[in-house]
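During the second year of the project, the team shifted from modelling isolated chains to modelling whole assemblies. The rationale, set out in the original proposal, was that interfaces cannot be judged from single-chain predictions alone. As a representative example for this report, we include one of the complexes processed in the last quarter. Its constituent sequences, exactly as entered into the pipeline, are reproduced here:
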Amino acid sequence: MDALHGLLGFVFNAELLSQYGWRLLSGVRITAEVVLLSCSIGFVLAYPICRARMSRNPLLWGPAAAYIAVFRGTPLLCQLYLVYYGAGEVRPWLTGAGVWWFFRDAFYCCILAFSLNTAAYQAEILRGALGSVARGQREAAAALGLSPYRAARHVVWPQAFLAALRPLGNELILVIKASALAAIVTLLDLMGQTRLIFARTFDFSVYLYAALIYLAATEGIRRLWSRMERAASKHVRPVELPRAAVPARRGGMPIRSAEYMPPG
Amino acid sequence: MGIPKLLLAVGLACGLAAGTGAHPAAAKEWKTIRFGMDASYAPFESVNQKGEIVGFEVDYARAICAKLEAACTFQNQDWDGIIPSLLSSKFDVIFSSMNITDARKARVIFSDVYYATSPVFVGQASGKSKDISPAALKGKSIGTQSSTIHANFLEKFYPDSDIKLYPTQDEPNLDLASGRLDYVVGDVLVEEDFVKTKGNGCCTVLSEIKRVPAIHGPGVGAAFRPGDTDLQAMFNKAIAELDADGTYATLQKKYFTIDIRGK
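Output from the structure prediction step:
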């Protein structure tokens, strides 16, 4: 019983929450800003990178493939350090270029590093999605005389969107978790605030709260994504017809052969 | 994974965490003493090019071990996790320039003070003002290591400044050199070492901060798990003996030009 009481006291620490709850909330806000900005910028960057990667021109796909390989093949922490402390090393040059104000700020450095990183992943997701649309679909659109834009808008993109939806949701969840790295370069995001509160209180339960907040965020997105996917894939799911639409089964009787008139 | 399973998993994880926190209460012979240090704090402890932890506190720890006739091992440990690691028996002593404070005393027990130095403000070499009053530093960015007396000091007395906290002391120093920070607060010896060796003339030590007892405490001590009072007593005896036989004085001359004993 004592152990249970101790565990409950560990989990529901009202004193800790009332004193530091607002700090956790402000951390959640910063985390949300970092994640939403990075993912949006990453998405905007991903499309041209993806098109370049799919191009037949080596001057386009070469750099795009290199970009994707570098950002997917190195740790995000390493990329963040390169942007943040690397910028510090070449400060005179950046000042000369008039962009030091941007690199001076830890928030902008995080947005830059996370955007570049997620752009590489999202470009690969888009490439996979566009590649998954059967070649015949494009040929059929062309045969119907649709312009390339209309073919993309009405035939290719809707199908690619469906294929990309789930991996993009997974990428969003990965970025949420990766955003905790921002705390290392002084940003007081959820993880940063958690570390700060822990440093003041030495109370481990604050890490549990942080974990639960991250879990709630990722679980919420998972559920939202399932709904979006259901909504977007109505036309490809087998449909359960409403009862009224199946009159032939009424009374448990099969369709009588007399009602069936074969042609001719 | 369904919600019930998820809760079970979280519960198990917590149970495991609680389990590893327990430490066998039985008295033990201290044949080997494992020291935990955050080796990003030259000249007290840092990692040399061979990957070994070296510095004043390493030498001093070896001297203590010689007195106790025990073997020493040294582990590099991230500062933010250094107290939890001690409590979960990753090592036996924190010997890493840890100042004795009331908040820390709630979790660990300390040896007697073995050194006490002053914190300092470091600023840009190009800066003209030597004024470090909270009013003068309003809106300026000040960096230091998180979970330290310096962080507590800044949060208490410089609430209108932009305080940036870093995992190690090396990082605010780097950011001061790059111009991202206006000021850094740190230990006088660590900061002087940085300004001389890695600063490249970027920065200058401005002035010492008078220790505020409620925040800075009496000085630096070794930290042990609350149950290890025997080890605490052994260390206190060794510290007194090393003072008496002059070993401390010889050791500190090797590293410092000033007296850091703080007695």
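The mean pLDDT of chain A is 88. The two ends of chain A are 83 Å apart (CA to CA).
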